[in-house]
Amino acid sequence: MRLRHSFICAAALASLALAGCSGSNLVPNTASGGGSDSKGGGQPIPSFTQFTDIPMPSNSSLDMDRSIIFGASDAWHGRLVMNSGGTPAQMYDFYEREMPNFGWSKVTVVRADISVMVYDRESRVATIKLQGGSFAGSTVDITVSPKG
């Protein structure tokens, strides 16, 4: 059973890695990404353009080791972890401003050293956890799951 679970998780992560390597700059979902920037080894930068229902700040990078996504487009579920150049306060303001633009309704928020924001949309719930990064910036942890 554990081997099967590990295999499923590995396959999901591999699918996410392949889907995320579109070569686009990291941009908010409301704008179309352009360019073909790459990391030092010529590998494409993971793109957030496949997440059409959640706003993504332009100064963020996907933490592939801590993210796991199932599904696609507006029907994905899972955990998306990003490292952002913005402060936790800037990320809080960004998500508070942008989530309604993507059809999400605020359920509850707690603004503190580690802020938690909960939104719902149709049959899904999004929980956004914001905290300071190790050296600078912040960590954005978004979990999307079915309601109920």
Automatic annotation (TrEMBL):
Record's signal peptide: 1-19
Domain of life: Bacteria
PROSITE patterns: PROKAR_LIPOPROTEIN (PS51257)
Keywords: Signal
Protein name: Lipoprotein
